[in-house]
Amino acid sequence: MARAKIAEAGPWLARLFLALSALAIALAAPGRAAAQGLIRDAEIEQTLRAYSEPLWVAAGLNPADIDLYIVQDPSVNAFVAGGQNIFVHTGLILAADTPNEVIGVLAHETGHIAGGHGARRSQFASNQAMGPMLISLALGVLAIAGGEPAAGAALISGSQQFAMSSFVQYTQAQESSADQAGLSYLEQAGQSGRGLISFFNTQIRPYEFMSRRMPPYMMTHPFASDRVEALRRGVEASAHRDAAEAPENLQRFQFMQAKLIGFIRTQAQTLARYPLSDTSQPARYARAVAYYRVSDMARARSELEELMRQDAANPYYQELMGQILFENGRAEESVAYHRRSLELAPNEPLLQINLARALREARGRTGADESIDLLRTVTAREPDNAFAWRELALARNERGEVALAELASAEQNFALGDYGLAMSFAERARRQLARNTTDHQRAVDIIDVVRNSMRDGQRGQPGRRPR
Ligand SMILES: [Zn+2]
Asked: Per-residue pLDDT tens for 207-234?
């Protein structure tokens, strides 16, 4: 957690935000809570993917093709953008009463993907004037990722708010079709469709007659009574309508909510929801996060030590302990926890970054070799992960590999959509790297792509990174 970033989808996503920001500026009502950005968190991503994958498979989609993004925004919303990207607001996760409600929404959004709804929309229009906003947003995200949440939050609130809720709008016919498709995926996955109905009833229906305060999910998913009636009929006809929640789904849900509450709400709110008398693991987890956020390290560590004693195999307990130590200037002590978290959740890119960063910070050049190995694995799997590229540049510098550090910085800026900086770093790398190497070719490729896009004047067009 606290590794919010914009990187994964790179320039494409950055531009999506720009396009959305324009809408947000135009539409944001006064007093409306500002969105705060994307969150990367290995545990929550794992949970949402575990909920979604059976649905994606039922829909005939390849899970590897679908990206899931967590948006830190208190409003209740989820939507699909740019084809196969599902965005879920933290507000929706926290508003849900059961995993089945979240799973129902994910099934509905999967219905939009499988139906190709909105796939041809091209609102990612270029807007040169918004360039500086992109940069400040990216810096904010990176500052948070770099363990400076306060600085990051300030940078982000200094940039324009971006509310994606006003972006994607479907017709009633598309909504109904996504509902019915979603129901069939739920059925195939052995899930009840009741969560969809209860989500409508608790989250959407109360707003039916007060449209001025309509929640974003209702705006982006136009609501009609006959749609809910059709859903209800479909649920009643389904064989799995009374399927119980899988214990594992329930447990994941409790940890996901606890973590988000600890990270997003105030300490007082977290302690009200999870009083000291509650000694369950999710409650201790939420409190550990809340204490950590107010720098009450003694209490945070005490809750975490109890959690690790109860479940030594939970990678995210280890991760949080490592994060607490790292951010309190104890990088060397954090190494063992980050290493353990990675042993418990092998090949998890975000945990690999944690360990790589701790090794470099704690051991400098001595730690750089392992750090570089880890980061190269991450960037191979997530080539648009700007934070991983930044860490790789730092580790290359530790080893005195200036040209490779500059190439990594070119990648970082390319991923962030800052083509000017990407170009200048790539130029410097190209001049120093030996010809006929893949690194040299990579620098040339970045230069070519940036040059072409500048020549075409299509800065705002969604494009993929060169490969
Ligand atoms: Zn919808």
From this structure: 666 655 677 787 778 777 788 889 999 9
Q: Which residues contact 366 (CB under 8 A, 6 or more apart)?
A: none
Task: Report the separation in Å between the CA atom of 217 and the middle of ligand 1, taken as the mean of its atom positions.
Answer: 8
Of 203, 237, 271, the domain-final residue:
237
Question: 3-state class of 85 per DSSP?
Answer: strand
Structure tokens, 240: 């799995």
Highest-scoring range by mean pLDDT, 34-38, 234-238, 392-396 = 392-396
* Measured CA angle at 425 (ends 419, 428), to 5 deg: 140
Mean pLDDT, residues 369-379 taken together: 97
- Could you tell me if residue 97 is inside a domain? yes
Residue 83 lies in a domain: yes
How close is the Cα of 193 to the center of ligand 1, in Å?
A: 15
User: How many independent structural domains does the chain possess?
Assistant: 2
- Amino acid at residue number 297: M
Domain boundary among 196, 211, 237: 237
Query: Near ion ligand 1, which residues have CB within 5 Å?
Result: 175, 178, 221
Residue 428 lies in a domain: yes
* Beta strand extents in 198-331 (DSSP E only): none
Whole-number average pLDDT of the chain: 81
Look at residue 114 and tell me if it is in a domain: yes
Per the structure, the complete domain to which residue 467 belongs is given by: 401-467
pTM of the model: 0.82
* Model confidence pLDDT, tens digit, residues 72-116: 888 888 988 777 889 898 999 999 999 999 999 999 999 999 998
CA of residue 99 to ligand 1 center, whole Å: 18
Which phi and psi (to 5°) does residue 81 adopt? -140, 150
